[in-house]
Amino acid sequence: MVLLRSSAFALMLAGLVQAAAVKRQTITALSSSQISSYAPFTHFASTAYCNPSTTRNWSCGSNCQANSDFQPVASGGDGGGTQFWYVGFSPSQNTVIVAHQGTDTSEFLADLTDANFFLESLDPSLFPGVPSSVEAHNGFADEHAKTAPTILSAVQQTLSAHGASSVTVVGHSLGAALSLLDGVYLRLHLSTGVTVRVVGYGMPRVGNQDFANWVDSHLGGHVTHINNREDPIPIVPGRFLGFHHASGEVHITDSGVWENCPGQDNTSTLCIVGDVSNIFEGSTGDHGGPYAGITMGC
Ligand SMILES: *[C@@H]1O[C@H](CO)[C@@H](O)[C@H](O)[C@H]1NC(C)=O
Ligand SMILES: *[C@@H]1O[C@H](CO)[C@@H](O)[C@H](O)[C@H]1NC(C)=O
């Protein structure tokens, strides 16, 4: 009983300490070296738009040359029924890379505003042990399920071939949503000694409040979603439909500053939710970038 009480007290204290830490965070600009550290991942996300026959042997031209030391292991998808993807090892970043292709901007925006979708619990056979209150967009979850086991085995093979202990999942647009789901999925299936990181560009909202909280507590600090200027995709599906972003936003402002936005869906005008209050204020042309000079697409 005493033990129970003291652990409850400890939990409460930890909560207070955390709340204080959150309060102290401010919106800060990334330094130029922090911004350039994302460039290899931006190129990796862009490369996911290239045909799998060219990512399999890293012959896709300038996108591939931007990460010239990359060692591809597997690739797939047909760009229609299943988005392109690839898996391999980056010696210079010392991480396994998983990348997912995005999709056509205006079609995607229409899909995410027509509300012809719903939130559903994650499939327990793919996401064992995750509470059923954790819900994601049904279309994203279905698309993720198509490639999940194949990608997991390619990741495991690459981790052991290189004795690596880091996996970075990247993607743009729909690819960013799939990357976040892959981040959750890989976190559940890889040993705790392996760091799982997600870097998404123009990521839409993927799940509900419990999903965002699950991501924050299990992948916290390892999720970055980078939003360019007035891109409307990151503000859909709307919060009024029950969707919430996990923490980790970086917003590129009109002046080209990369602002670190603490918390989930930070409403400051320096961050995407405050800057683009509805999709009519958005500019679909901002979705593809440029993200520090890099525009998405093969
Ligand atoms: C946005 O960031 C500011 C500065 O750190 C913080 O005070 C505020 O609570 C955040 N807002 C949300 C909604 O997270
Ligand atoms: C890569 O694969 C494609 C398709 O199989 C082939 O046409 C091309 O010659 C290969 N390129 C290299 C550099 O191996």
TrEMBL record:
User: Which residues, if any, are the signal sequence?
Assistant: 1-19
Cited Pfam families: Lipase_3
User: So what does this thing catalyse?
Assistant: a diacylglycerol + H2O = a monoacylglycerol + a fatty acid + H(+); a monoacylglycerol + H2O = glycerol + a fatty acid + H(+)
BP GO annotations = lipid metabolic process
UniProt keyword annotations, A-Z:
Disulfide bond, Signal
Question: Highest taxon of the source?
Answer: Eukaryota
Domain named Fungal lipase-type: residues? 98-239
Which family, according to UniProt?
Answer: Belongs to the AB hydrolase superfamily. Lipase family. Class 3 subfamily.
Annotated protein name in UniProt: Lipase class 3 family protein
